[in-house]
Specification:
The chain is about 20% helix and about 35% strand. It has 1 helix and 5 strands; from the N terminus they run E-E-H-E-E-E. A hairpin with a 5-residue loop joins strand 1 (about 1-5) and strand 2. About 5% of the residues are buried. It is elongated. By secondary structure, it is an alpha+beta fold.
Length: about 70
């Protein structure tokens, strides 16, 4: 699923693809905000993204369904 992270005082977003579920992402965001610690995600390419929770502006979580590829009729 696609995760977009908006940061305070910047126009750019951090965009990553993750295998985590929507519930896992929500739990990670809530924990980081409650604890004041960093928000950490691993993307599907093995990279780790670490964001200070006090710099977060918003988190946008995409659909959990895999995108279909191709031109066939389903």
């Amino acid at each position: 699923m696609e995760i977009k992270i908006g940061m305070r005082q910047t126009n750019r977003e951090i965009v990553l693809e993750s295998d985590q579920s929507r519930d896992d992402v929500t739990a990670a965001v809530n924990k980081a905000l409650a604890d004041g610690g960093p928000l950490t995600f691993d993307d599907d390419k093995g990279r780790r993204v670490i964001v200070p929770s006090d710099a977060l502006a918003y988190i946008e979580v995409g659909e959990e369904k895999a995108r279909r590829v191709g031109f066939g009729v389903a």
